[in-house]
Write a structure and sequence with these properties.
Layout lengths: L1 H13 L3 H20 L19 H4 L5 H10 L8 H13 L1
Length: 97
């Protein structure tokens, strides 16, 4: 397994993307699994080696805290029901009920 971890580290150092590293590890993992299934090996040294985590754009997205949201709405005059459009939209709904 040490050689497989060295292989993974070399691919990471080479600058490959996490998805590419995952595919390479999958190919090597399947190669060793075929050898294990055929009786040529007793183990699969790649079984415990995981690819680097794939970062998604959503991972970098930061949400506003409740306090930040209140301050933002207050700055726009929209906090605590002071939205100028809320009454004009709500009135027709209350009349129809």
């Amino acid at each position: 397994m040490a050689d497989i971890k060295l292989f993974r580290a070399a691919v990471v150092e080479h600058g490959s993307q996490p998805v590419t590293i995952g595919w390479k590890l999958t190919i090597v993992r399947r190669f060793y699994e075929a050898g294990r299934s055929s009786g040529l090996r007793q183990d699969n040294p790649v079984a415990g080696v995981r690819p680097p985590r794939v970062r998604r754009a959503a991972d970098d997205f930061k949400y506003l805290t409740a306090d930040q949201l209140v301050r933002l709405l207050a700055a726009r005059g929209l906090a605590r029901g002071r939205c100028p459009h809320a009454h004009s939209r709500a009135e027709p709904l209350s009349r129809s009920v």
